[in-house]
Q: What sequence folds into this?
């Protein structure tokens, strides 16, 4: 987390300097105003997502999360997470705080990766509202048949990859 913050901070400083050199003080100020407008647009959604994540953390017992979605939950945990990812509506403002809350409550890498992969590839809300009406049932069914294994595969491989990265880093 600290590395991510350092990289973002460095990028902001560097781009602020570039903006100043290109257009004087007005250009970085215009960029900061754009940032404020974006924040005002998505800030409430982000805040609600974090509040939801906090409530999930205090309402769902950690031992339940760990037993259903922990590293030791294996294929069962990956399948539960895959189904949850398919069924959970909402955009990234909800999903990433929710996944962070589940991680804090004892969910393992495999189920978390399966959840996010299923949500992004197979989200029922998006499929029913956009994909099927626009691209048709046949296309949607074919894509699902190909894609359904991906979250499970990702979830099963994730712990191994994380262990490998921990050893080599």
A:
């Amino acid at each position: 987390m600290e590395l991510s913050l350092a990289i973002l901070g460095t990028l902001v400083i560097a781009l602020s300097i570039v903006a100043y050199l290109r257009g004087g003080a007005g250009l970085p100020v215009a960029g900061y105003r754009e940032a404020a407008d974006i924040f005002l647009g998505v800030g409430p959604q982000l805040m609600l997502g974090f509040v939801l994540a906090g409530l999930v953390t205090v309402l769902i017992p950690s031992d339940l999360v760990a037993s259903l979605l922990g590293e030791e939950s294996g294929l069962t945990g990956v399948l539960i997470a895959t189904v949850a990812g398919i069924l959970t509506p909402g955009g990234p403002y909800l999903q990433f705080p929710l996944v962070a809350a589940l991680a804090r409550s004892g969910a393992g890498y495999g189920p978390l990766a399966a959840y996010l992969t299923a949500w992004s590839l197979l989200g029922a809300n998006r499929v029913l509202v956009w994909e099927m009406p626009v691209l048709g049932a046949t296309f949607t069914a074919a894509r699902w048949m190909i894609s359904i294994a991906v979250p499970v595969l990702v979830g099963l491989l994730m712990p191994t990859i994380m262990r490998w990265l921990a050893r080599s880093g």
Remarks:
- The mean pLDDT is 93.
